[in-house]
Amino acid sequence: MYPNRKTTPTAAALLTAATVLVAGCGSGPSTGAGPSETGCPATLARAEAAVRQAENSDAVWHGPTSGPPAASGKTLVYVAQTMTNPGVAGVAKGVEEAAKAIGWKLRVIDGDGTPAGIQAALSQAITLKPSGIVIGGFDPQLTSQQMAGAEAAHIPVVGWHAVGSPGPSEHPRLFTNVTTKVEDVAGISADWIIARSRGDAGVVLFTDDSIPFAKNKAELIRQELATCSGVRLLTTENIPIPDAASRTPQAVSSLVSRFQDDWTHSVAINDLYFADAAPALRAAGKPGAGAPFNIGAGDGDPSAFQRINSEQFQAATVPEPLSQQGWQIVDEFNRAFAGRPASGYVAPVHIATADNSDGATSWDPSGYREGYLRIWGR
């Protein structure tokens, strides 16, 4: 569907992975038993191949190579779900950088993570009569009246994590929605657990069901985990992102008491849950580099990379290229202003770990700044 989706491993590669993984399945030494002991030998082989590809750290940006030259005198308003969400804030920073590079003005309005706050922020954005509005990480259905107002005012709207799929949207009306493909992010985060555990894990899933995008991602994670019979979903913790700081520590303390050593892995729809989980895990005597091994299925903010690189209660993340997506948002608006279609670019999934991040604090594929500047004539 998209040109930069991960390629399907060859049959030979899968066979090789299967041979290696079957030989190494289980947490203890090999007993020479058959592959059925893994619980899911075929799934395990496929997961290992997918994870190996996603962990490639040499990825270069392969976005659009042509487009309209930079429009002049434009103003954007970035309406944030909440700037306490590191992913939302990271994209805002990318938009700010790109807007400066193209010669536009930007204003950021914080919705403070509540429906009323988001509605007020978007209403304020419309009254400013900008050239374009960014929906930063919230469901536009919560602001249907304001979205209708933007459409009536002929203000193009570009979303980031606004709807479940990348690309243009009719209902709600978005010129385009910038995101990695949620199916790929959910799938690879579950595959990492399957591969990391050799098909034997007890998993806790952290999500926010108040956000349709996040709820859908969590369901996709559940579906992929279920493809391996040896991976058990112990429970799902539904904690709204704005409440994560206050509710996650208590939830984690309860989970440690409830599941003890059966809890071996965690996956969260956003890395920020592990920032709040770390103190409770530390207080429970859990080692920072030990179980539960935690992976964030987005967004790859700097604090997540710091936890990963220091091996402190997070082992991996599936990061969005937040800065690159901010630049893409500006490029999409430039296309909208010129009456051109959306670029159609979708970033491929990546897994960042201490072994492949090289100490970085973000996932930032090379080449996109130069690419967009060439398109804009800057």
Q: Your description of this structure?
A:
There is one protein chain. With 378 residues, the chain is α/β, with parallel strands linked by helices. It has twelve helices and twelve strands. The chain has helices at residues 11-24, 41-54, 86-102, 115-127, 144-152, 182-196, 212-225, 244-259, 272-283, 302-309, 322-337, 368-376, and strands at residues 75-80, 105-110, 132-136, 157-160, 167-169, 174-178, 201-207, 231-238, 265-268, 293-296, 316-317, 352-353. Helix 9 links the parallel strand 9 and strand 10 (293-296). The longest helix is centred in the first third of the chain and has 17 residues, at 86-102. The protein is globular, with a radius of gyration of 21 Å. Mean pLDDT is 89; it is low at 1-37.
Provide the structure class.
alpha/beta
Calculate Rg over CA atoms.
21 Å
- Total number of helices: 12
Q: Can you give the helix content as a percent range?
A: 40-55%
Secondary-structure element string: HHEHEHEHEEEHEHEHEHEHEHEH
**Distance between the terminal alpha carbons, to the nearest Å?**
31 Å
User: What global shape is seen?
Assistant: globular
How large a portion of the residues is in β-strands, by DSSP E? 5-15%
User: Which stretches are poorly predicted, pLDDT < 50 over at least 5 residues?
Assistant: 1-37
- Biggest sheet, open or closed, and with what strands and sense? 6 strands, mixed
Q: What's the count of strands?
A: 12
User: What order do the strands of the largest sheet run in, or round the barrel if closed?
Assistant: 2-1-3-4-6-5
The residue-averaged pLDDT reads: 89
